[in-house]
Fold this protein.
Amino acid sequence: MSQHFNLDSVAFFGRTMEEYLQAFALSTNDLIGKRVLDCPSGPDSFVAQVNTLGCDAVGVDLVYDKSAAELEAKGRADITNCLAQMKAKPEFYPAMDFEQYSKSKTQALELFIADYKQNRKRYIHGMLPKLPFADRSFDIVLSAHLLFVYSPLEEDGYLKYGHSNPQHFDLQWHHQAVREIARVSAREIRLYPTAAMNSAPRRHRYIQPIMADLCANGWRVAFEPSQYRQLSTEMNDCLVARRLS
Ligand SMILES: C[S@@+](CC[C@H](N)C(=O)[O-])C[C@H]1O[C@@H](n2cnc3c(N)ncnc32)[C@H](O)[C@@H]1O
């Protein structure tokens, strides 16, 4: 399968809480009463929605120093751009209802923007691989659609380098980022997706070294099947790591 998707920079593109629960193989009962970090949170509406259910969730993202108006404009432009790329290669998305997909991304953006205006303290400016939190600050840390997805094009990811993105999400960066995510979690981390999104169905090439590193640092790791299906890819699992001590 040839590469079907490429981006010059990380998209400001987010999912709803329902999509997050599917992606991470979680139910709301798993989260009620817990301290949860969404990292990066982008324009997803997980934090906005799950807080209304009794979960103590915050999000971190490198663009959370910007105004709501700037983020809304960026979010709408990125939905248009991503959808245009997907629609240009429909053979990669045989089961995709593009209209519904676009609707859920817009719904997530609008819920996020309303909460960003109303509950600004839930949205913390920060940039992996360094997070502005003390060790073990959260019960669970969730990380979707930055790790693995934005590795270089030639390493199973979406990102073209030498363009407008100053970051380089290579394996070394991934090791630093996952160690940092693990540092701020007291119990559990979940990473999604784990598939190589831009090539034949198989695990992303960084997954095995990342799992080995977690195991060597006192974590037990496993895959859990995910129900969120953006691509018709196999290996649609999230990686779950639990602290052993
Ligand atoms: C595609 S969005 C994913 C949003 C959400 N996690 C989801 O799955 O719906 C990727 C986000 O990563 C953020 N980002 C990019 N580099 C980052 C970094 N080094 N640290 C923290 N956030 C970063 C971008 O600003 C963007 O909002």
